[in-house]
Input
Amino acid sequence: MHTGIVFNVMSGALFLSEIILLISKRSSAAKGGASHDRKSLLLIWLTIVFSIFASVYLSAVFPASVYPVALCWTGTGIFIVGMVVRFLAIYQLGKAFTVDVAVSTTQKIQDTGLYKHIRHPSYTGALMEFLGLSLLFGSWVSMSVLMVPICTVFIIRINLEEGVLLKFFGAGYREYMNRTKRLLPFIY
Output
């Protein structure tokens, strides 16, 4: 299995799917109304692009000395599962899903399906996609340069999003937070 080709296909699928979401899932607030995003979407995109380019560069400077094929298959599997989780979460949230931070007056707390145990399954899926990509490098340096900034910016975004949802839903969202985890069922 040639990891360069796999990486290109996976990163292409990731970027294409995210561009489609960016175009089709913007809230009306992002199109001119009141937005709660505080430029977090821009921060996420800049971090992702910078981290991927830096990881690719570092993988050329510090190439893996031995690259097991199993690592490539594992990364590909994690990536695919992550993409399925992300799009299932988006489907389950329905019209309430937006790429920017916005809450509709008709929105309700989603607490079924993937949202029964974790509050942000879409982010869990996205982070799995990036973890899968990072495994293709076969380098701890490249993996760290990809995952640490992206995880950090996602946590910033989650904090912002949860603050907005707490203001909007109040005690109902607080109770939902108390019985669910953020990203990993039963763990975090």
Q: What stands out?
A: The helical segments are 3-24, 40-61, 69-93, 121-135, 140-169, 171-179. The chain has a mean pLDDT of 87.
